[in-house]
Amino acid sequence: MRPYLDPDEIRDRFSKAMSDMYQLEVPQYGTLLKLVDAVNRETLDRDPDLHARLCYQQELARLRVERHGAIRVGTAKELATLRRLFAVMGMFPVGYYDLSEAGVPVHATAFRPMDDAALKRNPFRLFTSLLRLELIEDQALRARASDILEKRQIFTERALELITIFEQQGGLTDTEADQFVSEALETFRWHQQATVDHATYQALAQEHRLIADVVCFKGPHINHLTPRTLDIDEVQRRMPDVGITPKDVIEGPPRRQWPILLRQTSFKALEESIDFADHHDGTHTARFGEIEQRGVALTPKGRALYDRLLRTARTRTEGLANEAHQQVLAEVFEAFPDDVDTLHREGLAYFDYHLRDRAGLSGPVNSDTLKALIEQNIVRAEPITYEDFLPVSAAGIFQSNLGGRSDHSYEGNANQAAFEAALGAEVTSELDLYARREQASIDRLRTELTG
Ligand code: OOG
Ligand code: NI
């Protein structure tokens, strides 16, 4: 027997502990989970094919597992230590997201499991943003914020010890893992006490609400968790019935026969009371609950088409309520093929190829014959799920929960090299992961067909 726990198991325990903590901290999140659960059950009852497909893909059991959460940190050191902490749970930085383009002074990555088996076990990931103090023009304010951040320690001593133990011995025992989960959780806990006085909070919030959210608290509180829904439109519609207020519109592509990428919506962040260091009472708005529905990952060609159609739609959707907004999106996205054959033929999406029937076959597989094999129903093309995030959608989520402000002066500041320097590692390209997985399935097919 192996002495150490599988990192996937530690991630699974951690995501459950995080969910339990967040439901206690934000009761409205528990309400959202119940609504999502009810809508998922109704959807499955209505659609036996979907039920059978999810059963076949072994998806039913983990339908209720949260898919992602988000945190925001203030310094390179915090980000680099988080990288080591997440590695204990088999989560690695994938993708670079520049939010400055959307007027939010952060850039980000997603710590997530990378291989197929790990994603299947528990796909939990954390969208992790690093505040960019260098984008604050006011020198004195920037220095003040940096000073406050330098003084805080967001990790418990025992969490740091356990990370080092993991790195040295190559794993954690069952007991160590449990301890690690509860110590790591402390970093993401909510603190009603701000570390600064009210005037400092106000000055930072004036520059951008996000800066105050990162700088004025003891640590990077989890700001939302996100379960998976089978019908995002229905949950959006029914949120008011259970007393929670949805954000104005669902982000991402419209509803489709063959879902692409990622659709997301949330309930609006709550205004929570805060005790400031000078005993001044005030409030802060940061925490919310989100839901997501994922579709197929797009190739660079498919992604370019998505981005172009989204830009076109945006010129027409400004200020529209969700229903009208979705209507316009649906019209514009008629230009995006909505059947597996065309998605495959035009090279718009990534697929996992499986052999259905090898009777009467011989010879190698190249891309031309692959097409032929699919047409002859010998090979099945299974869409590969998109496991990452969308910068325009993320910006919409940020903005709807931070008072809707976006500051154009931050624009045009993508800097992946600076982000990686802070992280202490390179981020893996999400596109490489999808392309590699598709290629691996073609290689497997080739062996099966020639073997
Ligand atoms: C992160 C927003 C991004 C998503 O689902 O796109 C995100 C944040 O508000 O910190 O979680
Ligand atoms: Ni999110």
TrEMBL record:
<dbReference type="InterPro" id="IPR009770">
    <property type="entry name" value="HGLS"/>
</dbReference>
<dbReference type="GO" id="GO:0051213">
    <property type="term" value="F:dioxygenase activity"/>
</dbReference>
<comment type="similarity">
    <text>Belongs to the 2-oxoadipate dioxygenase/decarboxylase family.</text>
</comment>
<keyword id="KW-0560">Oxidoreductase</keyword>
<dbReference type="Pfam" id="PF07063">
    <property type="entry name" value="HGLS"/>
</dbReference>
<keyword id="KW-0223">Dioxygenase</keyword>
<dbReference type="InterPro" id="IPR047869">
    <property type="entry name" value="YdcJ_bac-like"/>
</dbReference>
<keyword id="KW-0408">Iron</keyword>
<protein>
    <recommendedName>
        <fullName>2-oxoadipate dioxygenase/decarboxylase</fullName>
        <ecNumber>1.13.11.93</ecNumber>
    </recommendedName>
</protein>
